[in-house]
Amino acid sequence: MFVARLVCFVLLLLSLSCLSFSHTVTGTISNDTNMTLSLTKVLIDHGKVSLNPDDILSAYGETKFELSSPIWNDRIEFTWGYTPTIDWCGDVPSQISGTYKYTFGLNDCTGSNVMCPGSGNMTTIVESCSGSVGSSEPVFYILMYYDE
After folding, report:
1. Which domains are seen in the chain, by residue range?
2. What pLDDT shows up at residue 130?
């Protein structure tokens, strides 16, 4: 009886381990504007950080971040935010941000927008938000559009 329970327990552990995989994300944040940006938000809800984005992101520069999920809690949730070092939009809050989420094989990437009437808008677009097993390499592009 003891051996049968032990075998069932081992089989249960093996089946659960097949449902969970570890995941690593190496993301790029590309500042495609003529403004220097300062890191003003870093939120890590799930995952382990091995590389934080740079505190200062120069005009037309880029930085990287890297996180991983443990094998038994296969989730990553990471949000970053940058604010221009110059006041380009008056009284409008101008933090631009992005979020990467990974949950048990599903990726989700989102960016934000800052609308500045009379000046233009800043937006974040995302490419390559994929890689369901093993690793992902999303790229967040920060873009600026000026009103004419």
Report:
1. 22-146 (2.60.270.50)
2. 78
